[in-house]
Amino acid sequence: MERDSSPSDQFHRYKNLIQNGDNPDITKERQGASFNLYNMQCFVYENDHKLQRRQEILEFVESHREFDDPVHPHFLNRDEQIDRATRKCLAMVDNLDAIDVTDYFDEAPLYQLLTIGRELHCLSLHYGMFLPTIQVHTEKSLILGPFQMAASKAILGTFAQTELGHGSNLSKLETTATYDATTKEFVIHTPTMSAGKWWPGGLGKSANYAAVMAQLYTSGESKGPHLFMVQLRDNAHAPLPGVTVGDIGPKLGNNANDNGFLIFDHYRIPRRNMFMKYSKVEADGTYIPPPHAKLGFGAMVLVRLLMIRDQTCQLGAAAVIAIRYSAVRHSAVRQGEINEGEGEVQILDYRTQQYRLLPQLARSFPSSQRMRSRNSTSKYVTKQINNNANMELLPELHALSSGLKAVITWEVAQGIEQLRLSCGGHGYSRASAFPDMYAYAVGGCTYEGENIVMLLQVARFLMMIAKEVRSGNPKLAEIAEYIAKPDAVTARISSWKTCSDEDIIHDFEAVTRKLIFATFDRLTTLERTMKKKEAWNACSIDLCKAARMHVKTYLVKNFLARVRTCEDPASRTVMHTLAKLYAFDLISGGGGHFMKGGFLSEKQFNEVQLGIYEMLAAIRPDSVALADSWAISDLELRSVLGRRDGNVYPALLEWAQQSPLNQN
Ligand SMILES: CC(C)(COP(=O)(O)OP(=O)(O)OC[C@H]1O[C@@H](n2cnc3c(N)ncnc32)[C@H](O)[C@@H]1OP(=O)(O)O)[C@@H](O)C(=O)NCCC(=O)NCCSC(=O)CCCC(=O)O
Ligand SMILES: Cc1cc2nc3c(=O)[nH]c(=O)nc-3n(C[C@H](O)[C@H](O)[C@H](O)COP(=O)(O)OP(=O)(O)OC[C@H]3O[C@@H](n4cnc5c(N)ncnc54)[C@H](O)[C@@H]3O)c2cc1C
């Protein structure tokens, strides 16, 4: 009897269908753009140098065989994933000359995306938190030793803070570091089961050092959480006596990273292993406090800022995939006709599809761009703090980084999910890249400060400002100046074509101000009959709403301001519409806040809705070109659906062919 043709034969037959050249629909979309792509890309990346560097780094990675993947990573088991990521990591760090390693915001993350993909790996925490901790918390005169060892990978570290029992509430961490003045050592200990460290990346198998957050005890007194440099494994990589360490098992995503657990049994480290840049323990046990109580949390502030940019780029990439796919989705499976007899349409032409895609695309621009200038703010603040001269900016930076982190990671995760749904069934396949993107992004809602906890930190800052404004003697940080402006009674928003940036900003500021003061009044009323913490808890939902609105207002203002800097008129026109779409979509989603007390009339709200529909139609012809303006290569995107050439179906067949189930 004749044997059925194997899956491989079948695939081979279909492979002949692979189109030569780009999908014609996507080509047509590109030809119809109203702006010059290069000009727009230069705007998005701030200058042509950054754009050129992206290309150079891509060419470098593509020309080095050690970065190749012999088997597609989607088809690997966890051990193989970890092996792959480790192999890639080594190749990556062996070739660091290819990038400017100090460019944490652009070159370093791009290089990692190109070499490894969207996976945290055994060195993620080493570079992402251990090195920054050394940089931020080591005294200048001592920094060279540990920094060079860590930078040269002589030691591999992680950041071990979270415990089984406590993650958000740092003041209740249970691991202890007790100073023994007789031996001039700290004794690191895990006194209870819930004190075991749990989650640190790279801890399970890879790291031999950790920056450990522990409660400091000296001269019999508790001094709160402090950071210590602790060796965990010996030269043969075995755990040192007094250290129990291992992997915590598989997670929703990031499974190439060996997140681990860590238990100490009266483990001794030298006194100098405390990070003593800000607070100190002298040899006799005398404690010198830091100039600001929260300076010990400085590395987290820096990493939150880094996360914002990284996460926003994920949303940008997800939008690129969904928009390109929506432009080519019609040749094999048509979804219906808009005008009968005129032939079926690309799914990109459905208004509902545009509503799914374009607000997400808009959302991906402001935060990524804003982060470039936040980078300089954080450098400025770090410099001020390093000089021990100025601590005034610290609360502002903490509030801003916490708020942006919380709002952006949430919007990115929700946005990726929305974009995944917009691709129908194929969005559910890992070939699309959405599942991996979502798993990566949604982790960011929890780590580096759980989002609600971070929003409540912003709310503390806002309530403090509200109190100052009410007292009539405010000394306000730049981002909070609008809170002291006089009340506005009615909204200025009108048609998207006629309303100015100032009108939009006016309305956002007014609504946020009302929300902040309404919450402040509720809080102070409750405080008359409740303990402070109970009152805070009772209105914490409103506190979070005010915090979110404050961050969104900040993002709207900055998006509009950034668009004004665009020198190319055609690019500026499109970006301006996108910025207005972003603002109108936020108003539409937060209609309740805007319409409260009749601030925004029903007529104005209808204009906002209508404006959104009209803007979707206006941006539609430019949507593929706007996606291209992210200048993301196929290697970086790692999505069969989002391929630049639009040849999705043959590529899906090719991808599936690699499944181990098809090998026999
Ligand atoms: C929530 C807080 C901020 C609360 O701080 P607290 O000292 O415990 O509470 P409190 O005594 O009520 O103090 C609040 C006060 O401390 C201030 N503050 C707090 N943090 C900072 C800062 N960084 N800079 C400047 N100021 C700061 C706040 O503004 C408050 O000030 P205020 O009292 O209102 O004037 C803190 O516990 C915290 O940061 N928790 C989150 C823990 C976290 O982020 N863990 C990250 C672990 S590492 C990780 O997840 C790595 C993943 C990386 C990866 O996989 O890529
Ligand atoms: C992928 C991943 C990687 C990680 N990597 C590391 C790492 O490398 N190093 C490390 O030290 N940690 C790491 N973590 C741990 C992470 O930092 C913590 O999970 C995070 O800080 C949240 O703490 P938690 O898990 O204790 O949550 P919890 O604080 O227990 O939060 C649970 C719920 O309680 C709520 N809640 C908590 N406190 C308050 C409050 N005061 N008011 C209102 N609501 C509150 C939260 O909003 C949330 O809904 C990682 C976590 C993940 C998921």
TrEMBL record:
Residues annotated to bind FAD: T162, G201
What Pfam families has UniProt attached to this entry? Answer: ACOX, ACOX_C_alpha1, Acyl-CoA_dh_M, Acyl-CoA_ox_N
Q: Where is the Acyl-CoA oxidase/dehydrogenase middle domain?
A: 159-265
Q: Write out the entry's keywords from A to Z.
A: ATP-binding, FAD, Fatty acid metabolism, Flavoprotein, Lipid metabolism, Nucleotide-binding, Oxidoreductase, Peroxisome
Any GO CC annotation of this UniProt entry:
peroxisome
Question: Catalytic center at which residues?
Answer: E448 (proton acceptor)
**GO BP:** fatty acid beta-oxidation using acyl-CoA oxidase; lipid homeostasis
What sequence ranges are listed for the domain Acyl-CoA oxidase C-alpha1? 297-463
**InterPro entries named among the record's database cross-references:** ACOX_C_alpha1, Acyl-CoA_ox_N, Acyl-CoA_Oxase/DH_mid-dom, Acyl-CoA_Oxase/DH_mid-dom_sf, Acyl-CoA_oxidase, Acyl-CoA_oxidase_C, AcylCo_DH-like_C, AcylCoA_DH/ox_N_sf
- Subcellular location, record wording: Peroxisome
The protein's required cofactor(s) are namely: FAD
Q: What is its main location?
A: other
Q: Where does the Acyl-coenzyme A oxidase N-terminal domain lie?
A: 39-137
Q: Does the keyword Flavoprotein apply?
A: yes
The GO molecular function terms of this record are: acyl-CoA oxidase activity; ATP binding; FAD binding; fatty acid binding
Keyword field contains ATP-binding:
yes
Please name the pathway: Lipid metabolism; peroxisomal fatty acid beta-oxidation
Domain Acyl-CoA oxidase C-terminal, chain residue ranges per copy: 502-663
In which family does this protein belong, per the annotation?
Belongs to the acyl-CoA oxidase family.
The name this protein carries in UniProt is Acyl-coenzyme A oxidase
